[in-house]
Amino acid sequence: EQKFKGKSVLVTAAAQGIGRAIALGFADAGAKVLATDINEAVLKEIDGKNGIRTLKLNVLDDAAVKAAIAAEGPFDILINSAGVVHNGSIMEMKDEDLEFAFDLNVKSMVRTIRAVLPGMLEKGEGAIVNVASVASSIKGVPNRFAYGVTKAAVIGLTKAVAADYVGKNIRVNAICPGTVESPSLQDRMRAQGDYDTARAAFVARQPIGRLGTPEEIADLALHLAGATYTTGQAIAIDGGWTI
Ligand code: NAD
Protein backbone atom coordinates (compact mmCIF):
# COMPACT_ATOMS: atom_id res chain seq x y z
CA GLU A 1 0.00 0.00 0.00
CA GLN A 2 1.37 3.41 -1.03
CA LYS A 3 -0.38 5.39 1.70
CA PHE A 4 2.36 8.01 1.84
CA LYS A 5 3.13 8.24 -1.87
CA GLY A 6 4.64 11.63 -2.70
CA LYS A 7 5.04 12.65 0.95
CA SER A 8 8.44 13.74 2.07
CA VAL A 9 9.58 12.50 5.46
CA LEU A 10 12.54 13.44 7.66
CA VAL A 11 13.61 10.90 10.29
CA THR A 12 16.27 11.59 12.93
CA ALA A 13 18.33 8.82 14.54
CA ALA A 14 17.43 6.54 11.66
CA ALA A 15 20.55 4.37 11.56
CA GLN A 16 19.25 1.75 13.97
CA GLY A 17 16.41 0.70 16.26
CA ILE A 18 13.07 2.50 16.18
CA GLY A 19 14.19 5.32 13.86
CA ARG A 20 15.45 2.87 11.26
CA ALA A 21 12.24 0.83 11.34
CA ILE A 22 10.24 4.04 10.91
CA ALA A 23 12.34 5.15 7.93
CA LEU A 24 11.92 1.72 6.30
CA GLY A 25 8.19 1.73 7.08
CA PHE A 26 7.59 5.08 5.39
CA ALA A 27 9.70 4.08 2.39
CA ASP A 28 7.61 0.90 2.05
CA ALA A 29 4.49 3.06 2.11
CA GLY A 30 5.73 5.11 -0.83
CA ALA A 31 7.18 8.15 0.95
CA LYS A 32 10.34 9.99 -0.03
CA VAL A 33 12.44 9.42 3.07
CA LEU A 34 15.48 11.35 4.24
CA ALA A 35 17.03 9.16 6.95
CA THR A 36 19.52 11.00 9.16
CA ASP A 37 21.85 10.01 11.99
CA ILE A 38 25.32 10.83 13.33
CA ASN A 39 26.43 7.26 12.73
CA GLU A 40 27.08 7.48 9.00
CA ALA A 41 28.57 3.99 8.72
CA VAL A 42 25.48 2.21 10.07
CA LEU A 43 23.11 4.66 8.36
CA LYS A 44 24.59 3.65 4.98
CA GLU A 45 23.05 0.17 5.41
CA ILE A 46 19.61 1.56 4.52
CA ASP A 47 20.76 3.98 1.82
CA GLY A 48 18.81 3.36 -1.38
CA LYS A 49 16.35 0.86 0.16
CA ASN A 50 12.99 1.67 -1.41
CA GLY A 51 14.46 5.02 -2.41
CA ILE A 52 15.64 6.07 1.06
CA ARG A 53 18.24 8.83 0.98
CA THR A 54 20.63 9.20 3.89
CA LEU A 55 22.39 12.20 5.38
CA LYS A 56 24.75 12.54 8.30
CA LEU A 57 23.06 14.90 10.76
CA ASN A 58 23.88 15.63 14.40
CA VAL A 59 20.70 16.86 16.08
CA LEU A 60 22.79 18.57 18.78
CA ASP A 61 24.02 21.01 16.13
CA ASP A 62 21.43 23.73 15.48
CA ALA A 63 23.24 25.19 12.47
CA ALA A 64 23.54 21.74 10.87
CA VAL A 65 19.84 21.00 11.47
CA LYS A 66 18.82 24.34 9.92
CA ALA A 67 21.13 23.89 6.94
CA ALA A 68 20.01 20.31 6.26
CA ILE A 69 16.32 21.18 6.39
CA ALA A 70 16.79 24.31 4.26
CA ALA A 71 18.63 22.25 1.65
CA GLU A 72 16.42 19.13 1.71
CA GLY A 73 12.98 20.43 2.71
CA PRO A 74 10.16 21.19 2.76
CA PHE A 75 8.92 18.11 4.60
CA ASP A 76 5.37 16.85 5.09
CA ILE A 77 6.32 14.65 8.02
CA LEU A 78 8.99 14.90 10.72
CA ILE A 79 9.88 11.98 12.97
CA ASN A 80 12.02 12.87 15.98
CA SER A 81 13.59 9.65 17.19
CA ALA A 82 16.94 10.71 18.68
CA GLY A 83 17.29 9.96 22.37
CA VAL A 84 19.67 8.73 25.05
CA VAL A 85 19.19 6.70 28.25
CA HIS A 86 21.19 7.51 31.37
CA ASN A 87 21.10 5.29 34.44
CA GLY A 88 20.75 6.61 37.95
CA SER A 89 18.46 8.17 40.55
CA ILE A 90 18.39 11.91 41.21
CA MET A 91 21.20 11.42 43.75
CA GLU A 92 23.36 9.29 41.47
CA MET A 93 22.96 11.26 38.27
CA LYS A 94 25.67 13.65 37.18
CA ASP A 95 24.58 17.18 36.29
CA GLU A 96 26.23 16.87 32.91
CA ASP A 97 24.13 13.78 32.19
CA LEU A 98 20.95 15.77 32.80
CA GLU A 99 22.25 18.58 30.57
CA PHE A 100 23.12 16.13 27.84
CA ALA A 101 19.77 14.31 28.15
CA PHE A 102 17.95 17.64 27.78
CA ASP A 103 20.05 18.51 24.77
CA LEU A 104 19.60 15.21 22.93
CA ASN A 105 16.11 14.19 24.08
CA VAL A 106 14.36 17.57 24.16
CA LYS A 107 16.26 20.44 22.53
CA SER A 108 17.00 18.30 19.46
CA MET A 109 13.23 18.24 18.85
CA VAL A 110 12.98 22.00 19.39
CA ARG A 111 15.68 22.45 16.72
CA THR A 112 14.13 20.16 14.11
CA ILE A 113 10.56 21.37 14.70
CA ARG A 114 11.59 25.03 14.42
CA ALA A 115 13.38 24.27 11.19
CA VAL A 116 10.55 22.24 9.54
CA LEU A 117 7.56 24.34 10.62
CA PRO A 118 7.94 27.21 8.11
CA GLY A 119 7.86 24.70 5.22
CA MET A 120 4.83 22.92 6.69
CA LEU A 121 3.02 26.23 7.20
CA GLU A 122 3.68 27.14 3.59
CA LYS A 123 2.31 23.78 2.42
CA GLY A 124 -0.69 24.21 4.71
CA GLU A 125 -0.20 20.82 6.36
CA GLY A 126 2.23 18.79 8.37
CA ALA A 127 2.58 15.94 10.84
CA ILE A 128 5.20 15.55 13.53
CA VAL A 129 5.76 12.43 15.61
CA ASN A 130 8.09 12.59 18.61
CA VAL A 131 9.46 9.45 20.24
CA ALA A 132 9.02 9.83 24.01
CA SER A 133 8.69 6.85 26.39
CA VAL A 134 6.32 5.51 29.02
CA ALA A 135 9.23 6.36 31.37
CA SER A 136 8.10 10.00 31.50
CA SER A 137 5.01 11.71 32.92
CA ILE A 138 3.18 8.41 32.30
CA LYS A 139 5.25 6.24 34.64
CA GLY A 140 8.10 6.70 37.09
CA VAL A 141 10.77 4.09 36.35
CA PRO A 142 13.52 3.36 38.91
CA ASN A 143 17.09 4.29 37.99
CA ARG A 144 15.99 6.50 35.06
CA PHE A 145 15.83 10.02 36.55
CA ALA A 146 17.35 12.05 33.69
CA TYR A 147 15.53 9.92 31.13
CA GLY A 148 12.13 10.20 32.82
CA VAL A 149 12.45 13.98 33.29
CA THR A 150 13.42 14.60 29.68
CA LYS A 151 10.90 12.21 28.14
CA ALA A 152 8.15 13.92 30.19
CA ALA A 153 9.38 17.16 28.62
CA VAL A 154 8.95 15.59 25.18
CA ILE A 155 5.27 15.00 25.98
CA GLY A 156 4.91 18.62 27.17
CA LEU A 157 6.69 19.90 24.07
CA THR A 158 4.41 17.76 21.88
CA LYS A 159 1.24 19.15 23.43
CA ALA A 160 2.50 22.75 23.41
CA VAL A 161 3.38 22.72 19.71
CA ALA A 162 0.15 20.85 18.92
CA ALA A 163 -1.88 23.54 20.72
CA ASP A 164 -0.17 26.39 18.87
CA TYR A 165 -0.54 24.89 15.38
CA VAL A 166 -3.80 22.91 15.51
CA GLY A 167 -5.52 25.65 13.49
CA LYS A 168 -2.84 25.49 10.81
CA ASN A 169 -3.40 21.84 9.91
CA ILE A 170 -0.20 20.74 11.62
CA ARG A 171 -0.51 17.79 13.99
CA VAL A 172 1.99 16.79 16.61
CA ASN A 173 1.86 13.53 18.56
CA ALA A 174 4.16 11.49 20.74
CA ILE A 175 4.83 7.77 20.88
CA CYS A 176 5.58 6.31 24.30
CA PRO A 177 7.18 2.88 23.93
CA GLY A 178 7.79 0.44 26.75
CA THR A 179 10.83 -1.78 26.23
CA VAL A 180 11.81 -2.30 22.60
CA GLU A 181 14.40 -4.63 21.11
CA SER A 182 17.10 -2.25 19.83
CA PRO A 183 20.89 -2.03 19.62
CA SER A 184 21.08 0.35 22.58
CA LEU A 185 18.87 -1.93 24.69
CA GLN A 186 21.23 -4.79 23.82
CA ASP A 187 24.11 -2.61 25.06
CA ARG A 188 22.25 -1.87 28.32
CA MET A 189 21.55 -5.57 28.88
CA ARG A 190 25.17 -6.54 28.19
CA ALA A 191 26.44 -3.73 30.43
CA GLN A 192 24.70 -5.31 33.41
CA GLY A 193 27.13 -8.23 33.31
CA ASP A 194 24.70 -11.17 33.37
CA TYR A 195 22.93 -10.75 30.02
CA ASP A 196 20.26 -13.44 30.52
CA THR A 197 19.20 -12.13 33.92
CA ALA A 198 19.14 -8.55 32.64
CA ARG A 199 17.08 -9.58 29.61
CA ALA A 200 14.62 -11.54 31.75
CA ALA A 201 14.14 -8.48 33.97
CA PHE A 202 13.46 -6.23 30.96
CA VAL A 203 11.00 -8.80 29.53
CA ALA A 204 9.25 -9.19 32.89
CA ARG A 205 8.23 -5.52 32.88
CA GLN A 206 5.79 -6.23 30.04
CA PRO A 207 2.76 -8.32 31.09
CA ILE A 208 2.45 -9.33 27.43
CA GLY A 209 5.56 -11.44 28.04
CA ARG A 210 8.04 -10.10 25.51
CA LEU A 211 9.85 -6.99 24.32
CA GLY A 212 8.36 -4.81 21.59
CA THR A 213 9.86 -4.74 18.11
CA PRO A 214 10.97 -1.58 16.29
CA GLU A 215 8.52 -2.52 13.52
CA GLU A 216 5.60 -2.42 15.97
CA ILE A 217 6.63 1.08 17.00
CA ALA A 218 7.02 2.07 13.34
CA ASP A 219 3.42 0.94 12.66
CA LEU A 220 2.21 3.42 15.29
CA ALA A 221 4.40 6.21 13.88
CA LEU A 222 2.90 5.69 10.42
CA HIS A 223 -0.57 5.56 11.90
CA LEU A 224 -0.10 8.85 13.79
CA ALA A 225 1.47 10.55 10.77
CA GLY A 226 -1.74 9.79 8.85
CA ALA A 227 -4.25 10.15 11.70
CA THR A 228 -5.92 13.33 10.47
CA TYR A 229 -8.12 13.85 13.57
CA THR A 230 -5.46 13.13 16.23
CA THR A 231 -3.15 15.77 17.65
CA GLY A 232 -1.42 16.54 20.93
CA GLN A 233 -1.63 12.93 22.08
CA ALA A 234 0.94 10.76 23.81
CA ILE A 235 0.20 7.15 22.89
CA ALA A 236 1.65 4.33 24.99
CA ILE A 237 2.80 1.20 23.14
CA ASP A 238 4.21 -0.92 25.92
CA GLY A 239 3.01 -4.54 26.02
CA GLY A 240 0.79 -3.70 28.96
CA TRP A 241 3.48 -2.16 31.20
CA THR A 242 1.17 0.72 32.14
CA ILE A 243 -2.15 -1.13 32.30
P1 NAD B 1 19.13 3.25 19.69
O1 NAD B 1 19.28 3.91 21.02
O2 NAD B 1 19.63 1.87 19.54
O3 NAD B 1 19.76 4.16 18.56
C1 NAD B 1 19.80 5.54 18.71
C2 NAD B 1 20.29 6.17 17.43
O4 NAD B 1 20.44 7.58 17.70
C3 NAD B 1 21.66 5.68 16.97
O5 NAD B 1 21.60 5.34 15.60
C4 NAD B 1 22.55 6.89 17.21
O6 NAD B 1 23.64 6.99 16.31
C5 NAD B 1 21.59 8.04 17.04
N1 NAD B 1 22.04 9.29 17.64
C6 NAD B 1 22.63 9.44 18.85
N2 NAD B 1 22.98 10.72 19.03
C7 NAD B 1 22.60 11.39 17.91
C8 NAD B 1 22.74 12.73 17.50
N3 NAD B 1 23.33 13.66 18.28
N4 NAD B 1 22.23 13.10 16.29
C9 NAD B 1 21.65 12.17 15.48
N5 NAD B 1 21.52 10.88 15.83
C10 NAD B 1 21.99 10.50 17.02
O7 NAD B 1 17.59 3.30 19.25
P2 NAD B 1 16.26 3.01 20.06
O8 NAD B 1 16.53 2.26 21.34
O9 NAD B 1 15.32 2.44 19.08
O10 NAD B 1 15.79 4.46 20.52
C11 NAD B 1 15.20 5.38 19.63
C12 NAD B 1 14.27 6.30 20.43
O11 NAD B 1 13.29 5.52 21.09
C13 NAD B 1 14.99 7.09 21.54
O12 NAD B 1 14.42 8.39 21.61
C14 NAD B 1 14.66 6.29 22.78
O13 NAD B 1 14.71 7.06 23.95
C15 NAD B 1 13.25 5.84 22.46
N6 NAD B 1 12.80 4.69 23.24
C16 NAD B 1 13.46 3.50 23.15
C17 NAD B 1 13.01 2.43 23.91
C18 NAD B 1 13.69 1.09 23.85
O14 NAD B 1 13.38 0.24 24.69
N7 NAD B 1 14.57 0.85 22.91
C19 NAD B 1 11.92 2.58 24.77
C20 NAD B 1 11.28 3.81 24.82
C21 NAD B 1 11.73 4.86 24.05
UniProtKB/TrEMBL annotation:
This is SDR family oxidoreductase. It comes from the Bacteria. Keywords: NAD, Oxidoreductase. GO terms for molecular function: oxidoreductase activity. InterPro entries: NAD(P)-bd_dom_sf, Sc_DH/Rdtase_CS, SDR_DHRS6-like, SDR_fam. The keyword Protein transport does not apply. Belongs to the short-chain dehydrogenases/reductases (SDR) family. Pfam families: adh_short_C2 (PF13561). It comes from Rhizobium setariae. The keyword ATP-binding does not apply.
